[in-house]
Amino acid sequence: MALINPSILSADFARLAEEAKAVEGADWLHVDVMDNHFVPNLTLGAPVVEALSKATDTPLDLHLMIEDPDRWAPQYIEAGAGSVTFHAEAAAAPVRLAREIRAKGARASMALKPATPVEPYEDLLPELDMLLIMTVEPGFGGQAFLDIMLPKIRRTRELISKHGLEMWLQVDGGVSASTIERCAEAGADVFVAGSAVYGADDPAKAVRELRAQAESATAAAGWGCAH
To answer: Which of 28, 40, 116, 226 is the most exposed place for a label (fewest CB within 10 A)?
Structure first.
């Protein structure tokens, strides 16, 4: 089953509660936290996450594009996050952090920038519930999908299968009706979509259509995994 996680980075920040309700058929709501240090942009922090968690029944998928996630990740779980993604390039002790996130009751996820290879982290995969492959450079929404990431997605799916893991493989960046099938065929099963959802006339319908596209491509590829 493909999971569609609309990114509120593409939503109207003045109407976050309403924008969350507009995609209530989504599996998760993706929330980008940027600190203007790890990436050149500044978004929102724990107080907004806490308010958003109270305004929607859709679980929150937090993507921390911040320095020192080892210190800050726990407070986002307390704010209501159901899944917390930290960057491999920013974490001082990724195994310890992943275990702390799980111990606090959230799903632990790690993200890799486009230039960061997955192979050095193979032994760490069992500590994670999800791995995020960035398909654009992190920091801004609306960027074009990087096709050169497709082999990396395939290699990651192979590693997950090799170790018999049930972890999810998420892609984030430029995911749309024209790219989601390639991502699914390569092995992704969780898809962050920003403008493809919030730029549509009917965001909820866009979520359903993207999910159908991904599931069709997954079935054709034959690697499918259950959630």
So the answer is: 226
Annotated binding residues for a divalent metal cation, written as ranges, equal 30, 32, 63, 172
12 is catalytic: no
Reported as a single tens digit per residue, the pLDDT across 15-30 is: 999 999 999 899 999 9
Pick the catalytic residue: 32, 35, 61, 129?
32
Q: Give dist(CA 83, CA 68) in Å, integer.
A: 17
Angle of CA points 76, 184, 157, to nearest 5° = 75
Tell me the whole-structure pTM to 2 decimals: 0.94
Q: Which residues are annotated as a binding site for substrate?
A: 7, 63, 139-142, 172-174, 194-195
Average pLDDT across the chain, whole number: 94
Q: Is 165 exposed, middle or buried (0-12, 13-18, 19+ CB in 10 A)?
A: middle
Q: Which residues are within 8 A (CB) of 18 and not within 5 positions of it... i.e. 6 or more apart? A: 12
pLDDT at position 224 is: 65
32 is catalytic: yes
Binding residues: 7, 30, 32, 63, 139-142, 172-174, 194-195
Catalytic residue among 35, 61, 172, 189: 172
The 3-state DSSP composition of the chain as helix, strand, coil percent (nearest 5) reads 45, 20, 35
> How high is the pLDDT of residue 84?
98
